[in-house]
Structures are given as structure tokens and as C-alpha cells.
Amino acid sequence: MDYALPVRRAILPAMKGDINLTGLIPAASIFGSTVPLKRTFPFIRYGAPITSPFRASGLDSSSHNVTIHAFTKPLMAGESVIESAEDRAYKMAAAIDAALDGRELALEGGMRATISWLGSNCIVDGDETDAWHAVVNFLAEVAG
To answer: pTM to 2 decimals?
Structure first.
């Protein structure tokens, strides 16, 4: 069974409820796959998952490769850079990892998703000249 939607519906509130993550990115700036045109930096976007059947030990379940994208610009005080966008991207990636890795999240319908961090990459955002993009990958394995 494909649990992509329930996994997303569990991961987003888990991130919004993590005070270390929301100390860097406000909960109101943590979005699903659709980001409003009038968003402010920093923000998070839930990427499109890759879902595969998971039938170990006879389970009718699914496994999900989930990517969380975080975008940031430099932290400024007037014209002075307090923290570079690159440094902020690495901090955000670490906070996303800490918020989700090792978590077991309850899903709609009684199933549970075990979340494992697979790795991160921080890169210059090609759409914004002064922005950086953190790409954080997870595996969500769903079982009853």
C-alpha cells in the first residue's frame, strides 16, 4: 500500500513542532510541496517522495525516500551580514536531521513510519543569487 500522503501528513507537523528547527525556520514557513509565491526566507518545502512497495515478513506497506528542501538567505543587520546563507543552510540541514532522524511517527489508519536520515547536501540556490539550498534526504519505512 502507498502511504506517501500519510507520511507527509506526519512529517510536516513533526517539523513544525520541533522548537530547535522552528528557532531557525518559523513553523508558518514549513510547507508541503506547494510554496506560496509570497513566501519569505527562510522556508522549507517537502519534496516529491519516491515510494516503493515494502513487503518484508508479509507486510503490505511501503517505503518512502523523502527529500526536505530548505532555502535561506544571509542573516542581515542593515547592510551587514551577521551570518552567511551558506552557514545558515548547514545549520538548517542539521536541525531538520535532528528533528526527524530516528523518529517513529504515527500515521492515519494506525500504521507507523520509522524515519532514518540518509544524508544532506547544501548548495547555492540557482534561482536566487544570494540564497542557499539545503537538501536533506530521509527513508520512511511504514509498518503496522
So the answer is: 0.93
